[in-house]
TrEMBL record:
PANTHER family attached to this UniProt entry: ECTOINE DIOXYGENASE, PHYTANOYL-COA DIOXYGENASE DOMAIN CONTAINING 1
Keywords: Dioxygenase, Oxidoreductase
Domain of life: Bacteria
InterPro entries xref list: Phytyl_CoA_dOase-like (IPR008775)
Name of protein: Phytanoyl-CoA dioxygenase
GO molecular function: 2-oxoglutarate-dependent dioxygenase activity; iron ion binding
Pfam families: PhyH
Length: 272
């Protein structure tokens, strides 16, 4: 990989206003964070690995709601240098730490989320439902690997919903879409949806409710995500079976009450 490595390493200048907006809204979109050429160079390898490791092959009409929403492949950094470059980017990890207002962040996981043409909605949900972590100092960076206009299904966020406790016990599903759509509208949380240019990214907190529309375009919506957690966060008592699954797969060997300092959860910022 040769294209603009500095774009993944050099600091990105956040303002105090950016940090305040993130704290207020639970998310932020940032323009021109990554060099489009660096993403174009890495996309084919990431896409090839997603197609290789993907386990969903049923016709769209036979899939569940979440299978229609996206092809989901995790821990790509262990299989692809191109994915590794994004996951271990000091530039992105530093942004995460500054937005979370913590001294450092470690990796929780990465996920590729590919929404195929004719792919369905991603229902309203909050990611931290799945994470057995002791605080809310967690966030996800959403990295489109192409321009993402509205017809491809970019993320929508309910601004300020990270303070809303209704729905935190709901996994992503038809029920979460229906119940949260009504509850968020009733509480008048503004819904923010915008296209992304290649190089734009967004960060959202683990308890920020978000969704995505259908992909009615002709190309797949190709996205990489990286989930960050406070480097000093601890494993919380498990609240549901999905959290046991994440503990086993994403933090193997981690113990409740202790920092998940495992080989799969390295500190990404500050670098040693």
């Amino acid at each position: 990989m040769t294209a603009a490595p500095a774009a993944l390493e050099t600091p990105y200048l956040l303002t105090d206003h950016d940090v305040q907006r993130f704290d207020r809204d639970g998310f932020i979109r940032l323009s021109e964070v990554l060099d489009p050429d660096a993403l174009r160079e890495r996309e084919p390898e990431i896409t090839a690995k997603v197609l290789e490791l993907n386990t969903v092959h049923k016709p769209m009409e036979e899939r569940s709601t979440t299978q229609k929403a996206f092809l989901q492949v995790g821990n790509l950094w262990r299989h692809s240098q191109a994915a590794h470059d994004l996951v271990f980017s000091p530039r992105l990890a530093r942004i995460a730490a500054e937005l979370l207002q913590v001294d450092g962040v470690r990796l929780y996981a990465d996920q590729a989320l590919y929404k195929e043409p004719s792919g369905g909605i991603t229902p309203w949900h909050a990611d931290q439902y799945y994470w057995p972590l002791s605080s809310d100092r967690t966030c996800t960076v959403w990295i489109p690997l192409q321009d993402t206009p509205l017809d491809m299904g970019p993320l929508s966020f309910a601004a300020g919903s990270h303070h809303f406790e209704f729905g935190r016990d709901m996994k992503i599903s038809d029920e979460s879409e229906r119940e949260l759509q009504d509850a968020l509208a009733r509480e008048q949380f503004p819904v923010d949806e915008h296209p992304y240019d290649l190089g734009d990214v967004s960060f959202h907190l683990g308890w920020t409710f978000h969704r995505a529309g259908r992909n009615v375009g002709t190309e797949p919506r190709r996205v990489m995500t990286v989930i960050y957690m406070d480097a000093d966060i601890r494993v919380a008592p498990l609240a549901r079976p999905e959290q046991q699954n994440d503990l086993d797969k994403l933090m193997p060997g981690a113990v409740v009450g202790e920092v998940p300092d495992t080989p799969l959860n390295p500190v990404l910022y500050p670098q040693a």
